[in-house]
Amino acid sequence: MSEIPLTTLVGTATFAVGAVFGWAARTSEFCTMGALSDMVFMGDRRRLRAWVLAMAVAMLGSQALQAAGLVDLGKSIYLGGSIAWAGAILGGLMFGYGMTLAGGCGSKTLVRLGGGNLKSLVVTLMIGLFATMTLKGLLAVERIAIEQATNLAPARLGLADQSLPALLSALGLERTAARLACVAILAGGALAWCLKDGAFRASRGMLAGAVTIGAAIPAGWAVTGILGADDFDPVPLASFSFIAPMGDGLIYLMTYTGSTINFGIAAVGGVVAGSFIAARLAGTFAVESFADKADMLRHLAGGALMGTGGVLAMGCTIGQGLTGLSTLSATSFLALGAIVAGGLWGLKSLEEGGPVAGLKALLGSRI
Predict the structure, then answer these.
(1) Angle between the N-to-C axes of helices 106-114 and 118-136, in degrees from 0 to 180, rounded to the nearest 10
(2) Less packed terminus of the chain by CB within 10 Å, N or C?
(3) What is the pTM assigned to this prediction?
């Protein structure tokens, strides 16, 4: 009996975890853009608390794997490279603004696609196209120029890597103590803020969805770092992120022969499948198309901005906002801040009728 290839094992496990992610995201209406919209227009912070709770769960689980020596998060793209501060800011703003035009972030786009939304199919295609163009196509020259002009090597700043514990260590705190302090303050503070609200505690669906989605992040690290461990040909350490994988997925569909399903491609497929199953069982699966020409153009522009911005920022609201933050990467916090700022700008722009008016309204508002 032949042995199952390691890539097949990892791909199958990833697809399963992605399906659980998609199911949870659909049934709990988990969405970062929706959370910002609820907060700005209705004063409802429950979905925002759900997102923050997922962040706390992701961080606690990932750091537990690191502390136990089961994975080395230092090998992830979030800690192993240069400090891409300019890309994080510019790309984050682009992605945040784009997700308001497209009606949701990368993960929400996949979840809606699983539910029959044809608008999300178009957005997925645009994200994949522009992500690939920015990675290795027409826009790659500009991306590389930005990186070469602005990226900083952590060693130049006297840091072991770009994590918050490394920053505290450079200031004199012992590394393990620095890591524990960061987790206690960030994850502990997030949990306290989320669970102090009675309305959120009563929203059991949101609570369950947030915990499940947060737990998917360390599950991703475990799939690649433990199941995918091999002395000669290990699977690259990764967890959930959706922008570049959408582009990889499109390429895989067009060039199946000789291609291999990596973690990202399997995760994208799993999320769509999980959402589809949830929608069918709930009786909510429905084909939805564009309302008019303006609606289509907004979604096209949103997909383009998310594809380009997501690559520049090295992740989306999940890739940087949950997976990156779970590694305690300083760049991830910077990227997330830019994504949130871009999202708020986009929401105000839709309300006020344009980006300039939206920026003025945002700067003059108290959210």
Answers:
(1) 140
(2) N
(3) 0.94
